[in-house]
Description:
Elements: H1 13-23, H2 27-30, H3 32-44, E1 54-58, H4 64-72, E2 77-82, H5 85-91, E3 102-105, E4 118-124, H6 133-143, E5 144-155, H7 161-166, H8 181-190, E6 193-207, H9 210-219, H10 236-247, E7 255-268
Parallel strand pairs: 1-2, 1-4, 2-3, 4-5
Antiparallel strand pairs: 5-7, 6-7
Amino acid sequence: MVAPPQDEYSLDPRAVRRAFDRASATFEHGAQVHGEIRARLLERLEVVRIDPRVVVDLGAAQGAGAKALSARYRKAHVIAVDLSCHMLQRAARQQTLLRRFGRVVADAQHLPLASGSVDLLFSNLMLQWCADPDGVFDQVRRTLRPGGLLVFTTLGPDTLKELRRAWSLDAYVHVHRFIDMHDLGDALLRTGFAEPVMETERLTVTYPDFASLRRELQASGSCNLAAGRRRGLAGRRAMQAVLERYEALRRDSVLPVTVEVIYGHAWAGAIKPAAASPGEVRVPLASLRRRR
């Protein structure tokens, strides 16, 4: 049997895990943007009335989000989940005697959590590393109790658009494909979430030079893992052409980088019984109450 052709933008979870294992020693030095977006997502929780007993930080990296969630929801049991064992080993340093959280190594598409056991699932900049958002959302909905809340951020299509254009010299994939906000909203509805709300904002991050951008991406583990990437180093001429293209964008002595941030939140409806009609989602009345 002939295997189907592989999508040039597809991501191998094993390669993603290895990349973040390697970056565990440098992540905190290259994750300034990651930290800023996490802070903005945490701010959005301030207007949501919820008193969770179990909170999951999915894609927890070195545990900064789990630490913040432990401080915010002091009565809750917080669990940091990440694909990288090395990241979670470093997450242990975020704990204090009074603010501790569990740590679980797991793929977001195969969560080893009991169905209906989670009240709040928080995820910052993890979804763009998953090949199948529907599979992730399906697992998240399964683990959330009816009326539980999912809040997340991910990256939209305009992210790194300057770098994508600078590299448009050959047929290789040099920058990952990022999913549109509306497609993610549709995926939430397909997997049984109620009241999905999607928003987007564009940030412009600046760097003194191209080398600084590359160092930060590498330090944070944000390297090119697409199946269609070049397997060897680019030649000197190609790199020079990329640099010249990017330098043409320089303004006020700095190089711009666009980051399109997608914010999403949705409430878990009741899990549909087998006899439900196609496309039907049954939502408990309790999940329809006003929460702002």
